[in-house]
Design goal:
TetR family transcriptional regulator, 67% helix
Length: 191
């Protein structure tokens, strides 16, 4: 039956990513995917081990897509311009692909997958933006965590409709990215 449905790991991963964007990563199930392909659940298990593998594959796909968007956004830029382009690309991806973005935030055990290059690329891109600010460890890690938590928190609240105020969320986003640039440029020295 799998041959008739044209099942491959890649098609399953793409279908799971699209389903995640429609219903949320937590609602992606083998049964829901099987229905999309018009096959029985068992047909999937000759291609993937379990639901966790599907979620890992969606997380890797989404991380790679996000990395590509970030790399394109920051190419040829530095300082506040690079930070703003990075932030905008991050937010745009998360809002356009909510299920995939949520998959990138799943706690994954590195022992469950072998492709860590995509996650290393994410760190490289973040640090590329941070180079302008000349931060050394542990400040570099602390500042990168500030960016990630600020972006993730804002996007989470915005996605949930939590900014119920007449001021446009995009206007606040612009001010926040400007504020982050000034903070990074004037990062307090470690004690």
């Amino acid at each position: 039956m799998a041959a008739h449905a044209g099942l491959t790991v890649e098609r399953i991963t793409r279908a799971a990513a699209e389903l995640a964007d429609r219903v949320g990563i937590e609602k992606v199930t083998v049964s829901a995917l099987a229905r999309q392909f018009g096959v029985k659940d068992a047909s999937f298990y000759s291609h993937v081990k379990n639901l966790q593998e599907i979620r890992i594959r969606v997380a890797l796909l989404a991380s790679d897509e996000l990395n590509q968007a970030l790399a394109a956004a920051i190419a040829g830029r530095s300082g506040g311009e690079a930070l703003t382009a990075f932030a905008d690309a991050y937010r745009d991806y998360a809002l356009a692909h909510p299920g995939r973005y949520a998959a990138t935030q799943l706690p994954l055990d590195p022992a469950e997958f072998t492709d860590t290059a995509v996650f290393a690329r994410s760190v490289e891109l973040t640090y590329a933006v941070m180079r302008h600010y000349r931060l050394a460890e542990p400040d570099l890690t602390d500042a990168a965590r500030l960016l990630r938590s600020t972006f993730h928190g804002f996007i989470g609240i915005e996605s949930a409709g939590g900014f119920n105020h007449p001021r446009a969320a995009a206007d606040s986003w612009r001010r926040i990215t400007t504020g982050l640039h000034h903070l990074l440029a004037n990062w307090p020295p470690a004690p």
